[in-house]
Amino acid sequence: MELVLKCSIWREDNWYVSRCEELEIASQGETVEGAQKNLEEAIGLFFEVASYTEVMEYLSHFGPVSPADIQKQPQVQVRSTHQEAQRVMGEVAVIFA
């Protein structure tokens, strides 16, 4: 199962801030790549510490979910898709494999 969520990265002072809108999770880094990597880690930690019930409830917002789909800790990949003004827009792939 692969879940694709929206994310964006923008510069604030000397830092780049990264945010996944649907999960309301944010992080930062000194570079775009650093902010991207830190967001991946933060989302991974969310799925690591969330209870099974919380994960099932959250994922049900995106359609039917089978318990077999989420047996493992997901891989998280932030992918940049395009740039809008001062923001890098992208997507977060949360892959339960």
Note down, in words, how this protein is organized:
- It contains 2 helices and 5 strands.
- The mean pLDDT is 86.
- The protein is elongated.
- The protein has 97 residues and is an alpha+beta fold.
- The chain has a 5-stranded antiparallel sheet with strand order 3-2-1-5-4, with helices on one face.
- It has helices at residues 32-49, 52-60; strands at residues 2-12, 15-20, 25-29, 75-84, 87-95.
Main features:
single chain; 97 residues; alpha+beta; five-stranded antiparallel β-sheet
Give the SSE map.
Blueprint: E1 2-12, E2 15-20, E3 25-29, H1 32-49, H2 52-60, E4 75-84, E5 87-95
Antiparallel strand pairs: 1-2, 1-5, 2-3, 4-5
Unreliable segments of 5+ consecutive residues? none
With strands numbered from the N-terminus, the spatial order across the biggest sheet is 3-2-1-5-4
Give the CA-based shape.
elongated
Total number of strands: 5
